[in-house]
Give the backbone structure.
Amino acid sequence: MLKIIAIEWKLFLREPVTVAFAIFFPTVLLLVLGAIPALRTPDPNFGDQRFIDAYVSTLVVIALAFLGLNKLPATVATYREKGVLRRFSTTPVSPARLLVAQLVVNLIAGTASVVLLMAVCRVVFDIDLPHHALGFLLTFLLGMLSLSALGLLVAAWAPTARAAGGWATVVFMLVMFFGGAYLPRFLMPDLLVRIGEHLPPGVGALQESWLGAAPDPVHLGVLALVTVVAGTVAAKSFRWE
């Protein structure tokens, strides 16, 4: 298992664009936004906080969404299309171990991305670290698992790697929209904000725990439910060839 994880991590590092977007892009985007003076000024729309303070949770969403909905389904679907999964199925190594390795790689990359983001938040912009550390960690894990489960569901149903990429892009764009990546959440109608708070990876719970409140149990419950349902359906419908 450890050997497979190590190999998958090396393969991940050999894709510079994937590494750059998954690990460095959220931090680079924070630096770009933070260079705008108006976004470093307290604003009543954010409870007298700065825009960059309120946008940090969305930056976490970007990292998790890319790993779970862009990288994971494309990788798994490509392995199946090229016969990698079929070859694994003929060895003592279960193909399921490859999926576990993909999840572990995503967790490692996601953790690296968030840690880097936190460091820049604190050192460069004096943004407080998550006040409710346990709640943030739990939301991060459930958010990563729920998006990965959706990514595996796409990989299970898509007939080809190209189709998997197209389907995953649609889900990715929806997650990014409701997560406030395209339009700041304070500009969105209340209904869309509420929907976004409950959808993976739980932008509402991420923001609550970052600002100091315990995450809403309902938000966490939805993330857990999506993980179980999507993961179960993906496992039952997954094709190794």
